[in-house]
Specification:
Helices cover 32% and strands 30% of the residues. The protein is α/β, with parallel strands linked by helices and 369 residues long. It has two domains: 5-167 and 289-368, Zn peptidases (Aminopeptidase); 173-282, Alpha-Beta Plaits (2-Layer Sandwich). An eight-stranded mixed sheet has the order 1-2-4-3-5-16-6-14. Strands 7, 9, 11, 12, 13 and 15 form a six-stranded mixed sheet that branches. α1 (5-14) packs antiparallel against α3 (95-112), α3 crosses α9 and α7 (290-303) packs across α9 (352-368). The longest helix is centred in the last third of the chain and has 22 residues, at 250-271. The protein is elongated and about 75 Å long.
Length: 369
């Protein structure tokens, strides 16, 4: 009897877990996978503390890797649905849908006995922890010859059922940056007795804004969170910027990070405020293999509304996988006329997207086999 993937999706959505803490999610997936008819055809590997790799082998030869991300975000859900999140976290980026699609694909492959060696990766910590490289560092993938890798990401930027990708860079390289300014607090009536950390932060932002930018190459340095001070009549002794660098190559993002460090050194000399700059999570750009793109587009265009969407400045942990193997990633449209965007407390793809996503994956398997 076939297991309804919608049931799994609802359970995942109700019980979201953050990066590297997807313990119950992993247990739930193992339980559901073991209930698949003919599950004796597969092997479940758990080389890391969360997440899993499912091996389906039907003969000698290489493997294709299909990946879904399983972690959630620290966002409180606004949707009023029967399967609303039961905690203060949320699958606001659609990972519950990605996971359910991959589960249903696994179920179909096993039940139909599809003649293709496939690895199904349920990956932890896509959102902020670099879970792909952590999983790879276990050495589990050294046991297989992998000739292609695939992933999807839902979005309400496109109408439901739309498949969107491009040859080359699909998603940008992403590097998180945290900058601390450490000065000395003083009463506002005696500013010369302190070293104002916020003034140093302000000088840094002014300097960054004056850096020349190429109009021909997309690049972003976004500062999403800025904090300073504690009370109104004390000059800030500390300040902090949390931001992200986005570019079309890891080389460009790292070059820009080096420029940030140089500017901060000058800010410190001018203001006397100590500056500390640290890298956070880093994702390489997602590269869609041109050979796979050219092979798959005719087949996908015949059955789905396919568009070449060009690059996006979105960051994605699948970038690491695309650096290891020839890869194909795509957006899967979910919109029925409304749009909230990813990482929004109202983002909620419909359950019908699961069947569509599985159908796209099956067409990919058929085309590459």
């Amino acid at each position: 009897m076939k297991i309804n993937p919608v049931e799994l999706r609802h359970l995942l959505h109700q019980n979201p877990e953050l990066a590297f803490n997807e313990f119950k999610t992993t247990e739930l997936l193992i339980d559901y996978i073991k209930r698949i008819k003919n599950s004796g055809r597969i092997i479940i590997h758990t080389p890391y503390k969360t997440g899993l790799l499912v091996e389906y082998t039907c003969g000698s030869g290489s493997y294709s890797l299909f990946r879904a991300d399983i972690d959630a975000l620290p966002i409180k859900e606004n949707n009023e649905v029967d399967f609303k999140s039961k905690n203060n976290f949320m699958h606001a980026c659609g990972h519950d849908v990605h996971t359910s699609i991959l589960f249903d694909l696994l179920q179909e492959v096993v039940n139909e006995g599809i003649k293709k060696n496939i690895l199904f990766l349920f990956q932890p910590a896509e959102e902020s922890g670099g879970g792909a490289i952590e999983f790879f560092n276990t050495g589990i993938f050294n046991n297989y010859k992998i000739d292609s890798a695939f992933a999807l990401h839902v979005t309400d930027d496109y109408p439901i059922g739309t498949v969107a990708s491009t040859g080359g860079v699909l998603f940008a390289s992403s590097l998180e940056v945290n900058i601390d300014f450490i000065g000395v607090s003083s009463h506002v009536a005696f500013p010369t007795e302190g070293k104002n950390a916020f003034n140093a932060l302000r000088l840094f932002i002014d300097s960054i804004d004056r850096l020349p930018r190429s109009i021909n190459e997309p690049f972003v340095f976004g500062m999403g969170r800025i904090s300073a001070g504690e009370v109104r009549n004390i000059t800030p002794g500390t300040a902090r910027i949390e931001g992200t660098i986005r570019g079309l190559s890891s080389r460009k993002t790292n070059e820009y990070y080096n420029r940030i460090e140089t500017i901060l050194e000058g800010v410190g000399k001018i203001t006397g405020v100590k500056t500390v700059c640290k890298k956070g999570s880093s994702y390489p750009e997602v590269i869609v293999d041109k050979g796979l793109y050219d092979k798959l587009v005719p087949a996908l265009s015949a059955k789905f509304n396919f568009i070449d969407c060009g690059y996006k400045m979105t960051g994605e942990d699948f970038g690491f996988i695309s650096q290891q193997f020839p890869s194909f990633m795509f957006w899967l449209g979910t919109s029925n006329g409304t749009r909230f965007g990813l990482h929004n407390p109202n983002f909620l793809p419909g359950d019908e997207v699961i069947e569509i996503g599985k159908s796209v994956y099956l067409e990919i398997i058929k085309t590459i086999s």
